[in-house]
Design brief:
Helices cover 76% and strands 0% of the residues. By secondary structure, the protein is an all-alpha fold. Helix 3 runs antiparallel to helix 4. It is flat and about 95 Å long.
Length: 157
């Protein structure tokens, strides 16, 4: 028999450390998810104001609203594309003109405010046309939407 000592396998201890780190990472993600979904204050955050008001409408109302606003959405998409092109040019300009960029940002902010005003006007028109009972039902659905919290982006109704 040979009296040669066996060489230590350093890669085994490295593999053990990596394995332990991965296990701790997985456990941390799982615990964090459970805390976020079940018990933390973050899970109680209400959804955005506009999306909640929209989602509280019945499906047929939401579909009609999307149809009514499709033209406005198309115009907004075209304007955003032009705005990004303009801001890209302004950012590349030499010498840089911060006033030009600020003007572009103001235009974008105004376009967003105009869209929000149009959405609010359409929402108020629909709410005003409801009977008292329909408005009560809408308020109940709105409360449910708020209690459910932010909407996931997995599906579109």
């Amino acid at each position: 028999m040979s009296a040669e000592p066996k060489t230590k396998r350093r890669w085994m201890s490295g593999l053990l450390i990596v394995s332990l780190a991965l296990n701790l990472l997985i456990v941390g993600v799982a615990v964090g998810t459970v805390l976020r979904v079940k018990g933390s204050d973050h899970a109680k955050v209400p959804p955005g104001f506009g999306p909640a008001l929209y989602r509280a409408f019945p499906k047929e109302h939401r579909k009609a609203m999307r149809g009514e606003l499709s033209g406005l959405h198309g115009e907004g998409s075209k304007a955003r594309t032009q705005g990004f092109e303009a801001i890209s040019r302004a950012l590349r300009a030499v010498p840089f003109d911060p006033n030009a960029v600020e003007a572009l940002l103001q235009q974008q902010a105004q376009a967003t405010a105009d869209l929000q005003s149009a959405l609010q006007a359409q929402w108020l028109t629909r709410i005003t046309a409801m009977s008292d009972d329909e408005r009560q039902d809408y308020a109940d659905r709105l409360q449910e939407v708020i209690q459910k919290g932010p909407h996931s982006r997995k599906k579109r109704d």
